[in-house]
Write a structure and sequence with these properties.
The structure is a homodimer. The first copy, chain A, is of the alpha+beta class. In chain A, the strands form 4 sheets. Chain A has a 5-stranded mixed sheet, covered by helices on one side. In chain A, a hairpin with a 5-residue loop joins strand 5 and strand 6. The longest helix of chain A has 21 residues. Chains A and B meet through strand 11 and strand 12 of A and strand 11 and strand 12 of B. Strand 11 of chain A pairs antiparallel with strand 11 of chain B.
């Protein structure tokens, strides 16, 4: 049987949603300062989680696939890639995506160690930025390890799962 | 290796996100009428897609798992289930979740036939409604086959993938 979207033993899991606007808190408010936010307009939110076994080798393929697969609506009504559009990208680190329901509890035994996740995430954002900037759009991203306070407006999220 | 969140041959794929507020268009505007929306406050958005091989037999387990697994934050800071909270549920049919990237194109060969998907979706919503209503909260849901114009505000989506 076809293995829809997923891999047998993924090392990275991503969920993609189209957006008209997405706004993410990158610094919580404290006594001295209001919360800091980043925002994109039309484009894509990618939630990303690295799993055990993930190395930097996987990153170029991930970036190429996520940015080049045709899942954005064009103004003409067809589907084009984020780079074709070109649309902006909001990268949201999302360790919860590595979870597995065991009875009533979610377990995260398969997530990479935090320091490895941070390194992979940072490099993933850099590679996305190179490609998206070259296409004429922008990349914003969440702070790894933070609470990802997020507001999204969509004209249909067209949620996709892509594993690597 | 553990199979995080996923199944080898899933018949249903769900993505869960916590929300503070979520608003979904259930009828597009036309000449006679403004758009119609449904809305939930604090609770969970579940994006659901049925794949080939799915039957009604899977639905009770899906509903039980999704509503009872502890992935919502309680006011006390711990994690509780949607029914424990109790929080509201917004069900969003999302056929795109069955997609698989093949080169630059997303393919949906593994999705159930549309009429089977509608039947399963309708029954899934009914079963969710029984449980959530009994716990004292509400269920809202999208119109199967429609464009799912969706706005979500989160205090951290805590995105989870759960397959069946």
């Amino acid at each position: 049987m076809a293995d829809p979207g997923g891999c047998a033993n993924p090392v990275a899991r991503t969920v993609l949603q189209q957006c008209l606007e997405a706004r993410l808190q990158v610094k919580a408010p404290d006594e001295d300062q209001e919360a800091q936010w980043v925002q994109i307009e039309r484009g894509m939110v990618v939630y990303v989680c690295f799993l055990k076994g993930a190395t930097e080798d996987i990153l170029p393929k991930m970036v190429s696939t996520l940015l080049n697969v045709r899942l954005c609506e064009s103004s003409a009504g067809g589907t084009v890639s984020l780079l074709d559009l070109p649309g902006s990208l909001l990268v949201v680190p999302q360790a919860t995506l590595g979870g597995k329901a065991k009875g009533r509890v979610m377990q995260y035994h398969n997530n990479v160690a935090k320091e490895d996740g941070l390194r992979l995430y940072t490099r993933f954002v850099e590679l996305c930025r190179q490609e998206v900037t070259a296409a004429g759009a922008g990349v914003r991203h969440g702070t790894y390890g933070n609470r990802q306070v997020l507001h999204v407006k969509t004209n249909g999220p067209c949620t996709h799962l892509v594993e690597f």
